[in-house]
Amino acid sequence: MSHPADFLFWGMPVISTLFQHAPSPLERLALPEFESAGLSVWIKRDDLLRMGPGLALCGNKWRKLKYNLAAARSGGHTQLLTFGGAFSNHIAAVAGAGAAFKFKTIGIIRGEAPPGLNPTLRFARECGMHLHFVDRATFRSKENPAFLHRLEQAYGPFYHLPEGGTNEKALEGAREIVTECQYQQPTLKADYWCVSAGTGGTAAGMTLEAKPGSKVLAFSALKGDFLKRDLASLLAGYPAAGDWALITDFHFGGYAKYRPELLQFLNHFYQEQGIALDPIYTGKLLFGLVDLAKHRFFPKGSTLVAVHTGGLQGIHGFNERFGGLLHYTP
Ligand SMILES: *Cc1c(COP(=O)(O)O)cnc(C)c1O
Asked: In angstroms, rounded to a whole number, what is the distance separating the alpha carbons of residues 124 and 107?
């Protein structure tokens, strides 16, 4: 039996030495806090997927782009256009995809160009991405057909990827996180699938595959509970989707926010486990899981799978911005 992700880009001009493709390892994560709560915890190492130069096209960004890239290719597109903030993992991933799969890429970036750019944008430019900066008001029309039409007049036809990369094809890619785990450990019966959420696309995709009796826990990286609505609407067309819940206690204030205890946790986790987490998404997820385990949120005997969705490219930018608070470089 071959795993579900094999040979998708058969025949495509790819730089194969840059590829570390699926399945990513599924490993036990035996933290003392999990053991003493009677939990069996696994970590799906999608951070180790590498589909292009650098650290950008990995994790859930690869899962979400995969079928979009295939669609862009089979639709005869030569350009990808997308939207994002100056530190966006999605922008970096699309730029990396352009370099690996030979698409031209255009990134519409929110706000002014930072002087000298930042590590994310420098990487994007090195990958050949054309960076087009727009003010915040203009950026908000990112889904407006008239605005997209103007962009098409300026740049020629493109395959449009929404900000964050979440669309139907992204969900198809994300559901493979679950199918892959089931293929790797056929006896593993996850009670909880735990994943960080920004747009909720990854969590939604996993929910499509989650078996009855298991539940997807989406840990919001952002303040507010708008994600509950977003997730519900992403899943509206799928009546057979599984059970899910949004966890909103571990966003630490939003994207570029942190607290000393989060940084301390990340540095300690790297020291003990040798696994680099990012401060925006996966760090908050693991922090949250340890905290919930300490407070006996999960029934004793539960099996959890936590997804390491990647995001490692953001560490350089975080450290450059805040002065080396994280003591590891992926
Ligand atoms: C983008 C991202 C997320 C959020 O994914 P969504 O599908 O938008 O919810 C989670 N983790 C990492 C590392 C990311 O880069």
From this structure: 9
Residue range 110-169, pLDDT digits in tens: 999 999 999 999 999 999 999 999 999 999 999 999 999 999 999 999 999 999 999 999
Are 43 and 119 in the same domain? no
- Residue 199 CB less than 6 A away from ligand 1: yes
Q: Is the CB of 200 under 6 A from ligand 1?
A: yes
pTM: 0.94
Question: Which CATH number belongs to the domain containing residue 43 in this structure?
Answer: 3.40.50.1100
- With CA atoms as reference, report the closest residue to 193 among 229, 261, 253, 244: 244
Q: Which atom of ligand 1 is nearest to the CA of 308?
A: 13
| pLDDT one-digit tens code per residue, 80-112 | 999 999 999 999 999 999 998 889 999 999 999
For residue 197 and ligand 1, the question of a CB distance below 6 A is answered with yes
Picking from 112, 141, 165, the residue at the C-terminal end of a domain is 165
Cβ count within 10 A of residue 12 = 12
* E strand residue ranges, 170-220: 192-197, 215-220
> What is d(CA 241, CA 141) in angstroms, rounded to the nearest whole number?
31
